[in-house]
From TrEMBL:
It catalyses: D-mannitol 1-phosphate + NAD(+) = beta-D-fructose 6-phosphate + NADH + H(+). The lineage of its organism: Bacteria, Bacillati, Actinomycetota, Actinomycetes, Micrococcales. Residues 212-353 form the Mannitol dehydrogenase C-terminal domain. Keywords: NAD, Oxidoreductase. It holds the Pfam family Mannitol_dh. This is Mannitol-1-phosphate 5-dehydrogenase. NAD(+) binds at A3, V4, H5, F6, G7, A8, G9, N10, I11, G12, R13, G14. One of its GO terms (biological process) is mannitol catabolic process. InterPro entries: 6-PGluconate_DH-like_C_sf (IPR008927), 6PGD_dom2 (IPR013328), Mannitol_1_phos_5_DH (IPR023028), Mannitol_DH (IPR000669), Mannitol_DH_C (IPR013118), Mannitol_DH_N (IPR013131), NAD(P)-bd_dom_sf (IPR036291). It comes from Nesterenkonia cremea. Residues 1-203 form the Mannitol dehydrogenase N-terminal domain. One of its GO terms (cellular component) is cytosol. Its EC number is 1.1.1.17.
Length: 390
């Protein structure tokens, strides 16, 4: 069995690749970072180190991953298409905005797939609602009328992945490109079952669910909302590491306030009990506090324009809370802190600060958050933008 995985970065090597390997797949990583591809392709194995308390598999904290290869999709797209054509599974962990660049490779692979082969099982493992569906839409759009003849060759399942994998040092301790990965022990991979028609991929570490919506919203609006709150409030308080941000009482109170609001929304919307949501929050805050995990506010706050967009972890739940007459004050405080996020090496952080300087508060709010002037959250966000603009 073979899986082609696009994106050999933190979560690609530290989670998706690891679980595919444990399921018995040969993993072909595909990436555009030449040095990383070369280092992976030359290696016989890499190690996933679990650090800190909790999680399954405590008896063995170092997982050695073998039976993989790596290809550069920028240099050799034909080889990637050929691997996709003969794979059972395709996964991605490249970031939601990169999915459109993965679509041509999958389409080319489907064109080369033998008639009668089992449908390719495609799963995007990104922090976004409906990421696999987005990937499918890119493929369908590219294929145009040809899609009718290819459609039966693939099935697409939305997923929710959860494991904190911090940024890794670029250089290995002995020199050369680092390919080992340090991760937290906790993980969860929920996959929507329906698309597979009973022929589930063999991923023992994942669990299959009938409806993914509640899982992905609970994950994105708790883990990622709480993480973003820790990053933006932590940066405002001068904390560089996420664990240090949580150790600051004021930051921790701000994170808790935002998460109480998202929990109230998730309970109202999906029927999670308040006890279940409280237990979920406690687990997550414990994960953020993991002192052995070198995770930074800069990584967690990266791409603030994506994080401030309409369906994402801040505006998404705040807008829905406001529509339902629920409190969004804690989330608004985090949105205000996100507007201050400034990081020269992050293109979106630079653009965010430029837009704040160029646009009126109303135009900024419409463009960045996608809220319309009639929405109950529009005026409070405009106030925050005006405050930031001085
Ligand atoms: N790190 C985490 O804790 C974590 C957890 C869950 C989900 N995620 C999600 O996984 C995705 C990846 O996150 P990450 O932290 O691993 O980021 P990362 O930057 O470490 O990895 C992304 C990889 O994608 C590669 N890439 C970029 N463009 C590409 C292209 N056109 N084709 C192939 N590869 C390409 C990059 O070179 C990089 O190696 C994001 O959507 C993120 O939200 C991350
Ligand atoms: O990857 P992003 O930029 O969407 O979000 C940053 C972090 O919150 C995220 O990577 C978490 O570590 C991860 O989602 C935990 O499962």
């Amino acid at each position: 069995m073979k899986a082609v995985h696009f994106g050999a970065g933190n979560i690609g090597r530290g989670f998706v690749g690891m679980l595919l390997h444990q399921g018995g797949y040969e993993v072909v990583f595909s990436d555009v970072a030449a040095a990383l591809v070369d280092a992976l392709d030359a290696a016989e194995s890499y190690t996933v180190h679990e650090v800190g308390d909790g999680g399954p598999g405590r008896e063995n904290r170092d997982k050695v991953i073998t039976d993989f290869r790596a290809l550069n999709s920028a240099e050799d797209p034909e080889a990637v298409a050929s691997e996709v054509a003969s794979a059972e599974v395709v996964t991605t962990a490249v970031g939601p905005t990169i999915l459109k660049f993965i679509a041509p490779h999958i389409l080319a692979g489907l064109r080369g797939r033998a008639d009668g082969a089992s449908p390719l099982q495609v799963m995007a493992c990104e922090n976004a609602i409906g990421a696999t569906e987005t990937l499918r839409e890119h493929i369908v759009e590219l294929a145009g009328e040809e899609w009718a003849s290819l459609e039966a060759k693939a099935v697409f399942a939305n997923t929710a992945v959860d494991r904190i994998v911090p940024g890794q040092p670029a250089e290995a301790p002995g020199g050369g490109v680092a390919i080992d990965v340090t991760v937290e022990p906790f993980y969860e991979w929920a996959i929507e079952r329906g698309a597979f028609g009973g022929n589930l991929p063999n991923i023992p570490g994942a669990h299959f669910v009938d409806e993914l919506g509640p899982y992905i919203e609970r994950k994105l609006f708790t883990v990622n909302t709480g993480h973003a709150a820790a990053a933006y409030l932590g940066t405002r308080a001068g904390r560089e590491k996420i664990a240090d941000a949580l150790a600051d009482e004021q930051v921790a109170a701000g994170v808790a306030a935002a998460l109480e609001e998202t929990s109230a929304l998730l309970s109202a919307k999906h029927g999670f009990t308040s006890e279940d949501m409280e237990a979920y929050r406690i687990t997550i805050l414990g994960r953020f506090r993991n002192p052995a995990l070198p995770d930074t506010a800069d990584r967690v706050g990266r791409q603030p324009l994506r994080k401030l967009s309409r369906k994402e972890r801040l505006i998404g739940p705040a807008a829905e809370a406001a529509e339902r007459g629920l409190s969004a004050e804690g989330l608004l405080t985090v949105i205000g802190a996100a507007l201050e996020f400034s990081l020269p090496e992050d293109e979106q952080a630079v653009e965010l600060q430029e837009l704040l300087g160029e646009l009126s508060a109303e135009a900024f709010t419409e463009q960045v958050t996608g809220l319309s002037a009639e929405h109950p959250l529009f005026a409070p966000v405009v106030d925050l933008v005006q405050t930031r603009q001085g």
